[in-house]
Amino acid sequence: MGPTGAGKSSFINTATGNKTGVGHELESYTSSIQIIKLRSLEISMHDITFVDTPGFDDTHKSDIEILTMVADWLKITYERHVKLAGILYFHRISDNRMAGTPLKNLHMFEKLCGKNALKNIILTTTMWDEVEGKTGEQREEELKKHYWKSMISQGSTAMRFENTEQSAWNIIDAIVNSHNERYAVELQEELVDMKQGLPETKAGQELYGKLQALVTRQHDTLQKIRASMKRHDDETILNVLREEYEDLRKQGEATVRDMEALKIPIGKRLRRFFTSRLGFLTFRRR
Ligand SMILES: Nc1nc2c(ncn2[C@@H]2O[C@H](COP(=O)(O)OP(=O)(O)OP(=O)(O)O)[C@@H](O)[C@H]2O)c(=O)[nH]1
Ligand SMILES: [Mg+2]
């Protein structure tokens, strides 16, 4: 698992010698859960099943759609008594800051895993060839000291993927050879054992909180744009503001749809604000 473009599919391809499923555009690539099976003795002594997931912040799918997809797969496999041997969580060491997408992804991932499964997680850094000098090591230290600290203290391990077959297998072997007990991820227990709906789970709640905050932020920004549109008469500025406004309004609409899909209550006032074109038309008339 991990953000879009972190190198999840590339890792599996490098390990298995497969050539498919890697993205080369700026857009996210893997759009559904992919299963890649490796029979014992092909490369390893064990039967290994790789599960490739689409990253959050996909260009085509909303976070809700991705979480629903991952949750469905985790639920079905757990109902069949299959537990994951380990989870690799991918992070690009070439990312120069830990904000927005990578951070949001990590929070969601932690919620989805829960405590027990953290022991079988390898925080895998990629894109080492994209960083120069000591930059990679410094970022790795920063991740271990700060963002990954609690996961590592609860048993997760950090490893580097150096984009070679050998390096991929060092990481896989760390899981296969550890003989750690297999744990259900918390989301599986919540969905199956506790019979919770996705919105009630910790991962669902994490997304819920994010959506609420997003709607409020969009609402505030739109209000500000509205006010400045009323003040400025310059056509160029107005056009820029109109574009920004329209962009936000579309995002707002999509967020409202996501919240409805999760059956999250959203205030009537906010729903009307995003779904009606009234506000926009009012500016046009000026
Ligand atoms: N330079 C460099 N490029 C890499 C490395 N690993 C992956 N890439 C490239 O990064 C891009 C994205 O890789 P993917 O494997 O498709 O990423 P993903 O995590 O599967 O992305 P989604 O399917 O969108 O969630 C591809 O163009 C890869 O060739 C690496 O270690 N170094
Ligand atoms: Mg992929």
TrEMBL record:
GO molecular-function term, one example from the UniProt record: hydrolase activity
Highest rank taxon of the organism: Eukaryota
Cofactor: Mg(2+)
Entry's localization field: Membrane; Plastid, Chloroplast outer membrane
Gene Ontology CC, one term: membrane
UniProt topology in membrane: Single-pass membrane protein
Domain G: 1-70
Any matching Pfam family: MMR_HSR1
Coiled coil regions, renumbered to chain: 231-262
Name recorded for this polypeptide: G domain-containing protein
